[in-house]
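Per your request, structure below.
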């Protein structure tokens, strides 16, 4: 039925009388195949059973080749297919959602069963994808209006015409960039903030969506820039957090060396005092004095080993800090971040503890 309808619609295209969504009137010169097509359309109620010839109504079956006939086509009578005269009629009928039902747009010569879309249909399709995405991000919808709430709110009226549509080729990229990501919520917030701040500068509410359609690439570019800045900030905070944790750990290690030494060396004064009080000054008990002397020598050797071990531990920590410093500096060689003061602080802590051990 659709092919017959399009055939006659094409025939009358050079002599159109009127065009309405529910009625298209025009004249054309009858050829051999046209009469049977008109009969089929008449039986399907897509045209009347009478055609106007020279001001007279003549039954379809009585028409003759060579006559100029005036007919009226009724698009709403087409079964299982929606007919639209042009892209704006399609937008008016289904501006927010791309039709799932079979449809045909005459001026675009587009059948929705076709695998390829002309530019205007593709632009309309991308517009409906953008609307669907914005609807999913909105807080609620009221008729043709979407309402968004962030730090500021935005009301977006989704009414538009084909002339309002700009370059929307980046719409699938935007949807994929936000929807298929682990930080989906953060990206949504960044995009909505960019959308709201940009469109709220348009004073007339009815012009905001058309501004979005005409300037989508600019808004998308600004969103990507804002997202890059967010990632850089997040990365910096993550690096700082990691660095501070490492510095704190090394500070604890350095401090633990002297604390460990203090806990082990605290017995030195008491031990020396005990040995001193046990010495027999009269030399009557020479064996005891020798034993105490030898014990003090053993104690001194153990003390020397303990202190050496603490120096070795401190040295290992120093080497580990240097490796960490080199590794961190290599990681940040292209960054403006600097942790020089923190490394200097660690170095001072090392030197201080090293001095305490020497004392």
């Amino acid at each position: 039925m659709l092919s017959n309808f399009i055939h006659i619609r094409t025939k009358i295209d050079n002599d159109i009388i009127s065009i309405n969504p529910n009625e298209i009137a025009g004249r054309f010169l009858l050829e051999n195949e046209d009469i049977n097509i008109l009969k089929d359309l008449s039986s399907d109620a897509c045209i009347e059973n009478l055609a106007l010839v020279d001001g007279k109504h003549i039954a379809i079956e009585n028409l003759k080749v060579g006559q100029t006939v005036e007919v009226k086509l009724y698009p709403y009578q087409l079964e299982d297919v929606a007919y639209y005269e042009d892209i704006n009629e399609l937008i008016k009928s289904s501006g927010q959602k791309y039709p799932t039902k079979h449809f045909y747009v005459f001026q675009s010569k587009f059948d929705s069963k076709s695998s390829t879309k002309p530019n205007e249909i593709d632009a309309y399709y991308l517009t409906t994808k953008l609307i669907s995405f914005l609807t999913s991000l909105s807080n609620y919808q009221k008729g043709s209006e979407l309402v968004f709430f962030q730090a500021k709110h935005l009301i977006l009226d989704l009414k538009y015409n084909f002339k309002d549509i700009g370059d929307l080729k980046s719409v699938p990229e935007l949807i994929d960039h936000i929807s298929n990501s682990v930080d989906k919520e953060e990206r949504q917030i960044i995009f909505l903030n960019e959308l709201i701040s940009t469109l709220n500068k348009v004073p007339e509410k009815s012009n905001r969506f058309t501004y979005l359609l005409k300037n989508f690439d600019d808004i998308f570019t600004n969103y990507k820039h804002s997202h890059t800045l967010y990632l850089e900030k997040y990365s910096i905070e993550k690096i700082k957090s990691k660095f501070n944790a490492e510095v704190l750990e090394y500070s604890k290690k350095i401090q633990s060396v002297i604390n460990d030494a203090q806990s082990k060396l605290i017995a030195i004064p008491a031990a020396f005092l005990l040995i001193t009080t046990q010495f027999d000054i009269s030399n009557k008990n020479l064996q005891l004095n020798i034993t105490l002397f030898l014990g003090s020598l053993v104690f001194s050797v153990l003390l020397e080993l303990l202190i050496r071990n603490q120096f070795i531990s401190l040295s290992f920590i120093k080497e580990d800090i240097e490796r960490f410093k080199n590794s961190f500096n290599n990681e940040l060689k292209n960054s403006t971040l600097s942790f020089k003061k923190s490394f200097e602080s660690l170095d001072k802590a090392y030197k201080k503890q090293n001095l305490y051990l020497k004392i």
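The chain has a mean pLDDT of 82.

Regards,
D.
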